# Entry
Amino acid sequence: MDISTSVNSSLAHLPPSLGRLSEVAHNLWWSWTLEARELFETIDPTLWFLTHHNPVKLLADVRPDRLARLGEDPSFLRHYSAVLRLFDEYCANKKSWFGAHHTDLTKTTIAYFSAEFGLHTSVPIYSGGLGILAGDHCKEASDLGVPLVGIGFMYPQGYFRQRLTQEGWQEAAYAPFTREESPIQAAQTLSGEACRFTVEMGGRHVTAAVWRVVVGRVPLFLIDTDVPENSPENRALSARLYGGDQEMRLCQEILLGIGGVRLLRALGIAPSIWHANEGHSAFLTLERLREFMQKGATHAEASELVRQSTVFTTHTPVPAGHDVFPHHLMDRYFAGYWEQLGLSRETFMGLGETPESRGHGFNMTALAMRLSAHVNGVSREHGRVTREMWRHFWPGLPTEQVPIRSVTNGIHAPTWISPELHRLYGKSLSPTWTSSCDDPAMWQRVTDIPDAELWAVRQAMKRKLMSFIRERARTGWMQGHIQPSQVLARGTLLDPEALTIGFARRFATYKRATLLFQDLERLKSLLQNRWRPVQLIFAGKAHPADEPGRYFIHEVLSFCHDHKLGGHVAFLEDYEMHMAKFLVQGVDIWLNTPRFPLEASGTSGMKAALNGVLNLSILDGWWAEGYNGANGWGIQPLADQADTKAQDQHDVEQLYRILEQEAVPLFYQRDRDGIPRGWLHMVKECIRTIAPQFCTTRMVKDYVGMLYEPATLRAPSTW
# Structure
């Protein structure tokens, strides 16, 4: 598939000697390639900072005379040529892992559907972990040469921007982003026309335009209903991520699943494998059923064809994470559709039935489970919980034999590594370390990095975080977003020398953001210790409709303003991908306190570990298999039958014990050079053991070997 990009008309002022800068800017390959990022930063360091590292906007805003001078600068031209050489070699895809190890699948196309993709702040179509995972999956598929095609939504208003009132309450603000300032371009059909498709929903026809984002070698196609052909109501269908009521959500999921199949047909793409990342896109199975039956297959034949070629990844054991639509809405939007599947209404509704929803709603996860032969959870522990949850689909089969597998999540290391550690790893491990992220032998060399060198890099990363926090607070004050009384709570008094604990994630109640505040006297003694101070940094959003989550944010902010804790506790407003990089790179300890067993996987702790940040977490999700007793700290939860009060009490006691008796003393135990040798020994063990196992290199290879390849081999080829 051709993934070349055209030059944006707004960048016509590029001098001929730099003519391909726009091409590189419109391929997100630059976002995880240090040499390319440094090239764009060199153009105008201040503008690079002000554009939040967005090269498309940078090139649109930079002064033409600056570009003209750079076009004649021998040093810049050498850097430019080197980046183009890397870019061209990468896009040529001549030495990919997939091409070398799966020659029988090279003509396969994998369609990867997700409601959100976290690629970069310049493409704000993500809300949190699910989107970041999908974005990392696409990047790694590109690196490995896996023939993936992404399907998602444009979301002109993206996810909400978080604003915090003076009283400490989260408010949601939406603002459209400027598509022309992002690496997004119109998708075209094989005949060169703008791609459009139509879906009938509730008796009305909705037209969607298609946009294209190039992620290295992987194209991502985005659905957008904000087109003149549609009514105002229909134009707003794709406006926001996770916005609106149940009916709006149902319409979006029809567009993603049914519309996504039609989008691929309009583009002339014929996938062999269909991967639904969470249940939001499960309607794709129904549209494929309908297609097969139109070709003459029976319902049973069509169901088997769909099942054997569909991969489904479920991401949460939390009931609220599974969409269930009431039958009256399903009737409104699918009346007439089930006949095309050769089904009665009752049988159709049964496709989305669970023991809990029987007669009350249509469960999207149930639909995906029934029509996917290749199902996985996202950690070993989550796989166990998922088999237990859905064992009724396989009556009489022992739970351990339920055919739901586990592919533990990973992170795309080149995206999340700090520039400082990137260079250190390049010097100490291998100049091409990013292409061997899953090689334990390479990571063994971490133990040979001199302590003083590693400590200096870690301290530099921490100072960058503190500078970032202060600059955000200063800018917010200047722009009127932050009042003088709020400046303290935004971290302006944080100490770059103090042990810093980070907690940044979605503020869902089961994640227990306020667990550490359950014993204020012990917390004060930790934070205010004159010789061994500790400080806390919080960040995260609660869904606008999640009142308990909003209250958790309010509660944390009240502690930030408490004069007895003030200066030691900070909450950073409007958590997003750009901020996340500073946090996972700059804190000393990454705190994670989910209520067991509700953490499916989690990936933020993996990003922190890659950057030498130690995890302190409940042994749930990925940490249950990542913790080895010497690479961080783990809290063994009580049995999952325990009541929540007993579990909270047990976990907070263990949390304080670890901080008071192990973590804080170890951090402040220094030699004569001021270096914490014991701490760094644990940091090296953390990097050595976690980096190769919890990277997307290992994860995507697992998907290929465990799910994609079997889906290709087992899918019937009759139709």
Summary: The first strand starts at residue 110 and ends at 113. Residues 1-10 have pLDDT under 50 and may be disordered. The chain has 29 helices and 22 strands. The first helix runs from residue 21 to 25.
